[in-house]
Amino acid sequence: MKLTKRLLGVGAIAVASLAASGTATAAFPNFSDCPTASGSIYCINVASTSGSMTIKGFTVPIHDSLEIRGGLASPDGSSVVFQAPRGTSGVFARPIQVPGGLLGIDFPIPGNAVTATAKLAGPPSALRVDLNTFTLAMPMKLALTNPILGSGCQIGSDRNPANVVLTIRRIGHADFVDGALIFTGNTNGDSTFAIPGATGCGINLGLINSLVNLKLGLPSSSGNNDLTVNNNFALKSVG
């Protein structure tokens, strides 16, 4: 099958650009919930090891908080579709601490701490792998958690996401382990995406939304932001 041959040769490079979202697991690679019954050709697992998101000079470290797990399928024999494990988006994340919290002070003041959690904006099919340019387009949103901000505060939304296109900046060491092609020490990134303003903060009060926007410099146009993800990537053929 022509597409299968292409994926075998370049799929690892193309899917390496997935390294933008999910929670790192204790064991890598993790193919335990790969949706093989849904027609996936390959199982993928990408886990961040470090990195950062910078918005107009304000930097939030992402550490090992991000992971993508799932599969790649080709229903029509030419295009590539990402498939998530059942009941998930395929993007897994744990909260990361926003430096300075609400007040911009790194001190344990009650109510000041803020955490951010990366989420996929839209269905799993919103993840797009391009085998011609070896990039991945992924709409993102960030959920912010704080007692004052409430449970619905977020940057971006399904209708107005931050459209991140991750490209390969550095390919790491390649190896085959138990039938999986593994790249360790990769770097992927994007510095061209725009970030919308905050919504739903403090029961969607304009004042609280404005406070978050002021703190993070939002909305932030293209050229002012950067997402850098150092990661490990694994790809395994199904069957």
Automatic annotation (TrEMBL):
Which terms are listed as keywords in the entry? Signal
The domain of life is: Bacteria
Which N-terminal stretch is annotated as signal sequence?
1-26
**Name of the protein this chain belongs to:** Secreted protein
